[in-house]
Amino acid sequence: LRKQAVSKDPKTLEISVTGKFSAITSSNGTHVCETSVIPDYIEDIDPTPSLYPKRSDDRALTLVVIKLIELYLEMPSQMLLPNLLQDREPVLEISVTSYSSYVQGCMIINNLCSLSPYLMDANLTIANIFFGDTLKILTAVKQTWSGKDPLALIDGLKNLKNVMKTQKSPKRLRRREKKTKQSLQHDSEITRHFNF
After folding, report:
1. pTM more than 0.85
2. Which ranges constitute the DSSP H helices of the chain?
3. CB of 191 within 8 A of CB of 21?
4. For a 10 Å CB count at each end of the chain, is N or C smaller?
5. DSSP state, 149?
6. 125-153 residue pLDDT tens
7. Angle of helix 126-141 relative to helix 75-85, nearest 10 degrees?
8. Cα–Cα distance for residue pair 29/33, rounded to 1 Å
């Protein structure tokens, strides 16, 4: 992780209007930022086969899981990152609030997700990609809670991580990663931490 969570550098702001990670640039020069938007963008440019479930109910549940991960896990992490990346102690109130949100988010994931072996079922979905990116932030900020690890509350998380590590990426995801890497803007102020 970089020492700067949000950049004010003009070159960075050209690519990411918020100055935050992650950001990619399309082959047409369109800059796409925000972790929750990038997977949908990639799905749009390479939709076959879809990373969304076919059934409407399953697709809706996948979108619910993504939103809940964003609200209960990613957003609280973002509140902790500035102090963490600047080697400062977090504001106690933010630390307590984010930990409480994490615990609630982990319990929600336990209730909604099967983790057999992926979040939703036996198929890789866009929710897994979003969750994988969020896990990187969660892993970085968990040191804030002096040995407490709310991620340990997620049943089957260790198995999910192992499956994601050991299973060869589907050809489609390797193709997407190659396209995405080719379209990235490289700048000293931007670090890409979005993996597929």
Report:
1. no
2. 10-15, 38-45, 56-69, 75-85, 92-112, 126-141, 157-166, 171-183
3. yes
4. N
5. -
6. 888 888 888 888 888 888 888 888 888 88
7. 40
8. 13
